[in-house]
Amino acid sequence: MVVCPIALAVGCNKCPAVSVCPLKTTLGDYKPPAANDPKGPGAKPK
Asked: pLDDT digit of tens for each residue in the chain (46 aa)?
């Protein structure tokens, strides 16, 4: 559940305080970019 008002409005990744927010995974919807990218480092080529 997203509790942070900024995360509700625009999402954690667009928040100007995402780099210093200690509760982004608890109160917001933050997911690290590397975890969402299946073509990132370590992906197997087809």
From this structure: 789 998 889 988 888 988 898 888 888 888 887 655 566 566 566 5
Q: Whole-angstrom Cα distance, residue 3 to residue 24? A: 10
- Read off the pTM: 0.56
> Which range marks the domain in which residue 3 is found?
1-29
Q: Is residue 35 part of a domain?
A: no
Q: What angle do CA 15, 27, 4 make, to 5 degrees?
A: 55
Whether 20 is in a domain gets the answer yes
